[in-house]
């Protein structure tokens, strides 16, 4: 991309042009909603809203423990904040389907498996307004996906004790997203190598290093952990522990920082690695949740 093209940030016309270039590549209803509906016998499944872009096509759902017990700690699992990050969605659903029951003696569960359904269908990081949802978790958010989610969680009137936000880092982060971001904002984006392997992002204000390590140790049984680059970094940030970096979650308005959870982690799977399959990526997300929950359970 030529530098002269980066002088003027996008206005409404450019954003509308970008939106019209996006195409539907897979079915949210067939691949996600049908799986959510199958969980109705086990959980309370409710629709907490729909994207105004197409309310019939893009409903959003909350999966919640039946017989919700206020005496238990509450675990939140979010997937599909970036809709294109497939294993975040299907890893969340797989955990709820096959593994959550093993922890219900200790925890209540709330799961929003696909926060960004339009992004899921178009395999997109942004929403239809060219907004990154995972920089938009704040009051009166311009990202409808975030405002619907925040209201739904607030309506539960229960503190979140553990939060797993399930993500991926893909090759398209560099080949598609960064060039688009540079064009949208009118400024160059610093390049950083995509890590080959799994890693997590903790919160600088509440690192919970033992918790992050427990997540990594469990995932290591399923797939490989990302090594640091030549400068000791992952995604341009210093790697503090094996497979662990930290962000200021609240300053960046990330999903992982909205709740003040005692324990929180954002997972990052690398689905483009030749060492993994789609199933392996889903299982890595499940392992991350299980590793974190086993750690927390041992301490309460």
Describe this structure in words.
- The protein has helices spanning 12-21, 28-37, 86-98, 117-122, 144-156, 172-185, 209-219, 278-297; strands at residues 43-50, 59-65, 73-79, 107-112, 162-168, 199-203, 233-234, 237-238, 244-247, 263-269.
- The chain is of the alpha/beta class and 300 residues long.
- The chain has a single domain (3-297), classed as Zn peptidases (Aminopeptidase, 3-Layer(aba) Sandwich), CATH 3.40.630.
- The strands form 2 sheets. Strands 1-2-4-3-5-10-6-9 form an 8-stranded mixed sheet. A two-stranded antiparallel ribbon has the order 7-8.
- Strand 3 (73-79), helix 3 (86-98) and strand 4 (107-112) form a beta-alpha-beta unit.
Secondary-structure element sequence?
HHEEEHEHHEHEHEEEEH
Low-confidence stretches: none
Helix content: 25-40%
Mean pLDDT: 96
Distance between the termini: 52 Å
Q: CATH superfamily membership, which one?
A: Zn peptidases
Number of domains: 1
Domain Peptidase M14: 24-296
Cofactor: Zn(2+)
Pfam families: AstE_AspA_cat (PF24827)
Keywords: Hydrolase, Metal-binding, Zinc
């Amino acid at each position: 991309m030529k530098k002269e093209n980066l002088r003027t940030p996008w206005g409404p016309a450019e954003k509308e042009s970008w939106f019209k270039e996006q195409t539907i590549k897979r079915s949210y209803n067939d691949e996600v909603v049908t799986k959510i509906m199958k969980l109705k016998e086990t959980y309370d499944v409710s629709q907490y809203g729909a994207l105004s872009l197409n309310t019939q096509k893009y409903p959003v759902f909350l999966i919640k423990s039946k017989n919700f017990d206020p005496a238990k700690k509450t675990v939140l699992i979010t997937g599909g904040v970036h809709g294109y990050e497939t294993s975040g969605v299907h890893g969340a659903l797989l955990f709820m389907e096959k593994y959550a029951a093993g922890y219900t003696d200790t925890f209540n569960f709330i799961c929003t498996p696909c926060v960004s359904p339009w992004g899921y269908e178009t395999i997109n990081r942004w929403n239809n307004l060219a907004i990154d949802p995972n920089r938009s978790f704040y009051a009166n958010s311009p990202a409808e996906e975030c405002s619907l989610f925040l209201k739904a969680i607030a309506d539960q009137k229960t503190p979140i004790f553990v939060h797993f936000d399930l993500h991926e880092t893909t090759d398209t982060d560099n080949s598609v997203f960064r060039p688009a971001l540079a064009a949208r904002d009118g400024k160059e984006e610093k390049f950083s190598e995509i890590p080959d392997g799994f890693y997590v992002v903790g919160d600088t204000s509440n690192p919970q290093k033992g918790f992050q390590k427990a997540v990594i140790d469990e995932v290591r049984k399923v797939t490989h952990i990302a090594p640091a680059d030549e400068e000791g970094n992952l995604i341009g940030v210093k790697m503090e522990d094996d497979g662990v970096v930290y962000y200021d979650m609240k300053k960046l308005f990330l999903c992982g920082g909205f709740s003040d959870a005692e324990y929180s982690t954002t997972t990052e799977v690398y689905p483009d690695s030749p060492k993994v399959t789609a199933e392996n990526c889903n299982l890595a997300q499940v392992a991350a949740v299980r590793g974190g929950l086993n750690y927390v359970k041992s301490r309460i």
